[in-house]
Amino acid sequence: MTDSGHKHTRAARLAKYLMGGPPLLFLLLLFAVPSVIMVLASFRYPGEFGGLAPLTAADPNTLQGVTLETYQFFFSDLIYIKVFIKSFFMALATTLICLIMAYPLALLIALSPKKNRNLMVLMVILPFASNFLIRVYAWMIILGPQSVLSQLVNNFLHLFGNAPVHLLFSPFAVLIAMVYVHLPFMVLPLYSNLEKHDPSLLDAAQDLGANGWQRFWRVTFPLSLPGIFSGSALVFIPVLGMFAIPDILGGTGDMLIGNLIKEQFIGTRDWPFGSTLSIMLTIAVLLIAWLAAKLGGHRGHYA
Amino acid sequence: MAQLEIRNVTRCFGDLIAVDNVSLNVEAGEFFTLLGPSGCGKTTLLRMIAGFDLPDSGQILLDGKDLANIPAEKRPIHTVFQSYALFPHMTVAENISFPLRMARRSKAEINKMLHVALEQVHLTDKASAYPHELSGGQNQRVALARGLVNRPLLLLLDEPLGALDAKLRQEMQIDLINLQREVGITFVFVTHAQVEALALSHRIAVMDQGKIVQVDEPAKLYSFPKTRFVADFIGHINQFEAQVVKPSHGHLCLAISGLGEIIAPPLEGVVAGDKGVFAIRPEQVRISAHSELTELKNHFSGVVHDLLYRGEVSLYKVKLANGAMNEALLPNSAPGRAELFEVGDTVNLGWRHDAGIFFHD
Ligand SMILES: Nc1ncnc2c1ncn2[C@@H]1O[C@H](COP(=O)(O)OP(=O)(O)O)[C@@H](O)[C@H]1O
Ligand SMILES: [Mg+2]
After folding, report:
1. How far apart are CA A173 and CA A154, in angstroms?
2. Among B78, B83, B87, whose Cβ lies nearest the Cβ of A207?
3. Of residues B168, B121, B157, B169, the one with CA closest to residue B142
4. Atom of ligand 1 nearest to the CA of B41
5. Which of A203, A210, A301 lies closest to B85 in CB terms?
6. Predicted confidence (pLDDT) per residue in B238-280, tens digit
7. What is the rounded average pLDDT for all residues in chain A?
8. What phi, psi does B144 have (nearest 5°)?
9. Which whole-number Å values give the CA distances from A282 to A26, A70, A258, A275, A294, in the listed order?
């Protein structure tokens, strides 16, 4: 290689470090380090007024102030596992509803004339222009007992002799807001996948005898699986950890993992147990991600 | 009755008449080619036969049945697309058996037909590979097998060899001829490459700006083009502005300005004074350094202006007395270049009195 070639590659390598360095440092300081702290904290005792109890090692050969108690506690009471399972089903339901609603929408955008697509995508992400909490509070009004919707539903139920229901402060309200907030995260990856499909594949399928339904199930759908997987991950994982929506719209029984963790840090001030819950959540997410990758991975290679 | 009948089909896109009053008959078992320059409407016509597009007017009949109300998926017509359009998420075997599954054939039948198709295109050992793991030529054969496997009445091929390199193209041409003969299915083949059309087809329809200009067997099309466009598009041809001096029964006497008079094959319906173009193929022009060409009725001298060595032949561009260029092809039958004319050499050119063709303006 020539001298200038050497210089060129060295400059390129330097540029790579210069550009990659800051974000890497950012992640290291604000993600890796806190994660380690959290893992360490989960093995400690809570402090009297929050925080952690001091490490009091009279004898350097014994580990004082270090314990597995929080983990034992987690598994000793089924209530925590139940909250995990409930959160899992909430995330699953949200993901499925988002998928069913987002797919036709993404397909519609992808099949629209090119000049309209950007506008349609903009409309999908427009809700992000207003504050998240305001959008969630808006549902309080929509679902409140005096709202048109509530009255319509209850009048309808009354017709058939059923007792009135509360829409607000229910798992239903939580689910609706979860779907509402996360829908764009499903639409966007699906759209960007569907938009790349080669239209001649559908022509070929039709030419070879496939009707509209078969063209969808045998060509469009399998080719969109990578989009479905990334959209599902973008919805499922945040919903699993969400605490604001159940806080605002859920009843007392609608606590999810997110609320439980928040409660440990802000309410009962039990940092070690809060850390343990967080770690269990992380492990659950990684497990699900690994499962999804195993299920979907071998199909991803052509995309 | 012809298997495929196209009757006065017209298709417009806005002001553009992409297919202009086209009528064609394709016989069962025929290898029929639509030949024309890019943008002349070949794909548009093919898409109407396949059922992706409908004619604005006219009819398309298959075995005497009007296809107008039959959707593409119900037509016993399959297409090999230029881009192949193989399903990337399916293996070779899944791709090829797709039309069989759509036709709801039994498992045993599917396996048998798939096996035969894989053998026909020599891809048995690639059955479980994905398209992205195959070469262009292999993918092209998958596309062919997929189009043929369910035995359509008609196979449409839209420039299927366009994406292959020259060597592979030639091999595929031979494979295609053999395959068509073997399966006996009617092929409608679309190409803008005249060499391919001449080599493959039983008959060729030349298209220009949406219209069919001439339909003929390859040799007839090459030797007796009906228009200057066809003559020029099918292979190469020398052209001279010419005027009829004297039409007679046996031959035509033409005057070429600056060169003198030549004798050409006769043409009906021309009278003295008619203007037109005389055209002659380069391989019909003989070239020599000596004056032995005087036995030919038409002979001139000129100066070698360019030469192109092509391996099997050498092409000489000779500048004639009137400034016109005349191309002559010389086979390189001896090692090296057969006759070593160089640029600047004075040479004699000549051709037989029954060679060439006059196009009346
Ligand atoms: N869907 C369409 N809309 C508008 N113009 C079209 C469409 N399809 C083809 N054309 C035009 O019709 C003409 C013929 O096109 P095509 O049939 O693809 O030609 P070829 O296959 O011979 O190259 C071209 O000028 C092309 O631009
Ligand atoms: Mg074309």
Report:
1. 15
2. B78
3. B121
4. 17
5. A203
6. 999 999 998 777 888 999 988 888 999 988 888 888 999 999 9
7. 88
8. -65, -45
9. 20, 16, 12, 10, 18
From B198's Cα to the closest Cα of chain A, the distance in A is: 28
pLDDT of res. A15: 87
B142 alpha carbon – ligand 1 mean position (Å): 27
Alpha-carbon B199 to chain mean position? 8
Residue A296 pLDDT level (bands cut at 50, 70, 90): low
Structure tokens at B25: 């008959």
> Measured between beta carbons, which residues in chain A are less than 8 angstroms from residue B150?
208-209
* DSSP per-residue codes, B109-177: HHHHHHHHHHHHTT-GGGTT--GGGS-HHHHHHHHHHHHHTT--SEEEEESTTTTS-HHHHHHHHHHHH
Is pLDDT at B14 greater than 60 in this prediction?
Answer: yes
Answer with the residue of higher pLDDT: A67 or A192: A192
- Domain positions in chain B: 4-232, 236-360
Closest chain B residue to the Cα of A198, Cα to Cα: B85
Closest partner residue to B81 among A200, A211, A219, by Cβ? A200
Q: Whose CA is nearest to atom 25 of ligand 1?
A: B39
Question: In this structure, what token pair is assigned to residue B148?
Answer: 């043929």
Ligand 1 mutation target, pool B43, B47, B83, most atoms within 8 A of CB: B43
The CATH class of the B236-360 domain is mainly beta
The ipTM estimated for the assembled molecules is: 0.85
Of residues B342 and B177, more confidently modeled:
B177
Helix (H, G, I), strand (E, B) or coil at B12: strand
What are the phi and psi torsion angles at B58 (to 5°)? 100, 175
More confident residue, B63 or B270: B63
Max CA pair span of chain A? 89
Answer yes or no: pTM beyond 0.90. Answer: no
Separation CA A282–CA A153 (nearest Å): 39
- Residue A111 corresponds to which tokens in the numbers above? 């099949």
Which CATH number is A77-302 given?
1.10.3720.10
- Residue A218 and residue B130: Cβ atoms within 8 Å? no
Tokens representing A224 are 């969109």
Residue B298 tokens, joined: 């038409």
Q: Which residue pairs from A128-137 have beta carbons closer than 8 angstroms and sit at least 24 positions apart in sequence? A: A128/A184, A132/A181, A132/A244, A133/A244, A133/A248, A135/A180, A135/A181, A136/A177, A136/A181, A136/A244, A136/A245, A136/A248, A136/A249, A137/A248
| CATH number corresponding to B4-232 | 3.40.50.300
